[in-house]
Amino acid sequence: MYNNYRVHCAAVISDFHNLEGIARLEWPCCSPDVNLIEQVWDQLKRAIHARRDPTRNLEDLCRLAVVEWDRMDQHFINMLMESYAMKSPSTN
């Protein structure tokens, strides 16, 4: 998978992949809609910030993260996965 990162575009890398018959799968660089975990992290951060509990240290933040992670709507995650499946290039 390529994301237009400079190292991925080097001629020696392309030559090696062509020689080995490795197919290229290109993705837009830093595209949030193809990176599901970024959307989940964003949802988690929003939930933590929306709480009124003050976080005074890392331990408090970790505790709140676990609480909000457990409360995260599974339907939201399922919808992300389904939308990703519809956008993914076919492997057939």
Description:
With 92 residues, the chain is an all-alpha fold. The chain contains four helices and no strands. It has helices at 11-20, 36-50, 58-71, 74-87. The radius of gyration is 19 Å and the shape is elongated. The chain starts with 10 loop residues before the first helix and ends in a 5-residue tail after the last helix. The mean pLDDT is 79.
Principal-axis shape: elongated
Distance between the termini: 17 Å
Biggest sheet record = none
Instruction: Give the helix proportion (percent range).
Output: 55-70%
Tell how many strands the DSSP assignment holds.
0
| Unreliable stretches | none
Radius of gyration: 19 Å
Secondary structure category:
mainly alpha
The fraction of residues in strands falls at under 5%
What sequence of helices (H) and strands (E) makes up the elements? HHHH
Number of helices: 4
Mean of the pLDDT scores?
Answer: 79
What's a quick, concise take on this entry?
The chain is an all-alpha fold and 92 residues long. Helix content is 58%, strand content 0%.
Helix/strand layout:
Blueprint: H1 11-20, H2 36-50, H3 58-71, H4 74-87
Features:
58% helix, 4 helices, single chain, 92 residues, mainly alpha
